[in-house]
Amino acid sequence: MTASPTPPTSRSRRSAGDRRAQLVQIGLELLPTTPIQELTIDAVARRAGISRSLLFHYFATKREYYTAVTRAAADLMWAHLQPRPGTPADEQVAGMLDRYVGWVETYRESHLAFVRGAGGGDPWVADVYAETRQRLVEVALSTLGLPDDALRRQLVLAWFAFAEDLVGSWADEPTLSRPELLALLREILDRLVRSGH
User: How far apart are CA 46 and CA 146, in angstroms?
Assistant: First the structure.
């Protein structure tokens, strides 16, 4: 009798780390059209080809899964906004602003849900949001060549709040051209920074 061919690796053979990464990636793929709070565990499990109960083997609760996806999305945004290596210092801020506007355009509903979830008191969103904001403030201060002190942090954080609101509403109703929006954001940032000197 001919030996049976080696069976293909089954889905259950994935390591726990690989399966968690796959499930988070599915969440990320759904974010452009589905805010994190609206992702259903059933839809994610079905797309992964596993049962709902198996998903909870890798993530103990729905909140743990949502937190993992939110954190992964925040990490992607942070990496996306980083100045490109070799970019002249005077072009770095403009590039970051342009990439931020593009990010909100692509992930408008999810980004809005992220910001509102943090403001609405969802602890798992608020923690990730606060961490992301602090990382972005540090990048902005470094890019602008400013000292990292309490006043500058407050000013840049205030600017981020303004930028989030303006870009979010602009993505929904563009009352300015994109270049005009970018120029306005940069002008207000420059004014705030100068007021801290």
Answer: 49
Domain contains 127: yes
Q: What would the 3-class secondary structure string for 37-52 be?
A: HHCCHHHHHHHHCCCH
Q: What is the mean pLDDT of residues 20-49?
A: 87
**CATH number, domain with residue 159:** 1.10.357.10
Residue 2 domain-assigned (yes or no): no
* CA gap 57, 76 in Å, rounded: 25
pLDDT category at 140 given cuts 50, 70, 90 is: confident
Instruction: Give the tokens for residue 53.
Output: 């109960």
This prediction's pTM? 0.74
Q: Is residue 104 part of a domain?
A: yes
The stretches of the chain forming alpha helices (DSSP H) are: 16-30, 41-48, 52-58, 62-81, 89-106, 108-119, 123-144, 150-172, 178-195
